[in-house]
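Lab meeting tomorrow. Look over both lines:
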Amino acid sequence: MELYQVSGRSHQRTNRMGILNIFDRFRASTSDRSPWGDFYFEPVSARSISGMRVSADSAMRLAAVYACVRILSETMASLPLVVYRPRKDGGKDRVTDHWLYQLLGKRPNRYQNPFEWREMLQGHLALRGNAFCQILANSRGEITELIPIHPDRVRMELLSSGDYRYRIRDQAGSEIVLPRGEVWHLRGLSSDGLIGLSPIDLSRESLGMALAAQDYGARFFSNDAKPTGGWIEFPGTFKDPESKRVFRESYQAAQSGSNRGKVLVLENGMKFHEVGVTNKDAQFLELRKFQITDIARLFRVPPHMIADLDRATFSNIEQQSLEFVMHTMTPWAERWEASIEADLLPDGDALEIEFDFANLMRGDAASRSAYYQSGIQNGWLTRNEARISENLNPIAGLDQPLRPLNMVEEDDAEDAEIESQDSDTDASPEPDQQLSLRLRNLVESNAQRLARRICKKGVLGSNEINLIAQTFSLPLSAVQDWAQGAPSLEDEPALSRSLIQLGIHK
């Protein structure tokens, strides 16, 4: 992507002369039948010191680059995108009937599904540092489509007013100009806040060396794994330059193609002297391994994820996978979320966008089981919420959080402390009486707590009946029979006395 400075709408670029006109003619290819134009046009790439031309497309020739881009793109595309609406109590509700959810989660445009769309844009970000979509909206201001635009075909122009616009070349080779409000621009790391920096351009020398080493390896094995180069010692002289040329060409023909490796006969005292550097001297294999690590470092992808297992163990792979989620994918997700909320939502809309990382952080079955058990036992997770997290349907009666019997609320704890102090002032009874009194006090405390909870809720349903049965260790049928003749839920003292009688006469 390029940045231009223009003075007004009447500006016409004057640099379409000479050799630039040649490049312009080649930008429109008839081989591209995509709805967005020529996606496969590769601009003139920069040459690295190693002699290799490096661009986003040429870098994809490296297996490590292709693997890293696929990991980033497919991971981002596979994350569930959730739309929330905040509540006044600090919670938030999922939204599925808003046009933004339908756009991002169901059909971003007429050509792509959400996975393909996000995969493509994240690939543009990883390779070029920018991703663009043309915004199409209806009369109500609702965005109906986001049409991707290849970053190589977009130029940003700064206006004298301080605003900017986008100049896009279409399939026919002509240019269209779109204002800032009609283009969704997703930026990577930027030095000016306008254009994202291309990781490929910034790592040109490292990638150029990797491409050079890859090409060298290909040429080496195409030559039957023999070092190239050499010279022939001839004790005499050739009678003319033409004779020397014919000899050289005949020698090369005898040792190329299907003739490689065959016996060569030299005449007139000629000797062949091999010249070349061995792979050991060049440290070819070590260089290739280092380049894989270097490319993984460029994209912040753990080496084991691109099949580099030289230093991999079970422990560090698990830790690196967590770091990949926290330090690689989370920043990308935050960038997407912030851009969607700032550029696609109208002002005043309080919706929140969030990528759900729960599936990436699930862990194994044992870890998830311990997590659910802790949440259910401590009351901050219901049994149905745990079932839904495991893609299981909810069951009636499992929506209420559980609380351990040895944990009471602050008011209940104060009541129990006062009752305990009052009982301590009485004369000490016999051991059997002490046990009976202790059990009665426990029954009364639990009955008062249950009565307070039931009256506050105003419902004596199946959840409450199950809780009473668990508290007093009673059969469920006995509690159900008691519930049929239970006192009014508006009379807490009467309900408490009835529960005491139920617990004592169990």
Remarks:
- The chain has a mean pLDDT of 79.
- Residues 141 and 224 are 65 Å apart (CA to CA).
